[in-house]
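=== RUN LOG ===
request id: a7f3
mode: sequence -> structure
chains: 1
length: 318
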Amino acid sequence: GSTGVLLNAKEGKTLANEIHYPVLLKARAGGGGRGMRIVRQESQFEDLFQEATLESTSAFGDGALYLEKLLVHARHIEVQVAMDAYGNGIHLGIRDCSIQRKHQKLIEESPSPILQDDFINRLGNQVIHALKKIGYLNLGTVEFLMTPEQQCYFIEMNTRLQVEHPVTENICNLDLVQLQIELAANHPLPWTQEQIRRQGHSIECRINAEDPALNFKPSPGRVTRLKFPEGEHIRVDTFLEEGIDIPPHYDSLIAKVIVFGNTRAEAIQKMIFALDQFKIEGISTTIPFHRQMMERPEYVQGQYDTNFLEERGAFTPQ
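=== RESULT ===
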């Protein structure tokens, strides 16, 4: 891809022809899929460059774009790390966040259903080695796109906790919020890599105020009834209360459902149980989408990538 941001569309088009289409235009200041455009052929380039620039300027006050080769059938995987002020670092396994819509994660799980421990440990150790080189201090997540041949391409690093951190907490049986505070207070890491034990399987579903039957149209409004799922190893992170108003101005995420099982199959069944109990009335939510996903054969078999919903369809109204 480009070295830094593009000066103009002409420079981007020249580079795209060198590395071959499809390519991806991305906003330097972007996030959440905004300021991104897939360009599949040269004739589209200038129009999509302009669209991405305008969207990025509107969303972030910065229209600068860079360009990279588009990996069509990739999985989105990420390594959770913790680094202290004394040169120590550990990784806490890999999360698979490949179920996405418009570059927004919808379902996350750990471990990945297709990766073996030797691959996870090798990639994790490479990440720790790199972060020691730059003197990184804090929790953090290093994100990659992985090809079907398991070649990994760096996307970005999030120097903070992420929405999906509870699945790592579940499989490692630790509190990442507490750990981040301790690292910020210059406490040394309380464990070595050899002391980290990853066990079981955890899945998180992001519940958004959107109507999946109407192409995920935003659904602001008042929550008139609310019933949370209950049970062992079922967790809900949310601000929701009955009578609360969901405004149209912000991100649509309103809750996260996180489950843990001894196996992936057990975790999927527990998520089905939790989603069936979770009742939110007054607004539409993505609970029906998640409930359907948990029984789709491709998901159950772990055979999905970041293009899965785009190519196979996101939701079929019942």
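=== NOTES ===
The first helix runs from residue 9 to 19.
The mean pLDDT is 96.
=== END ===
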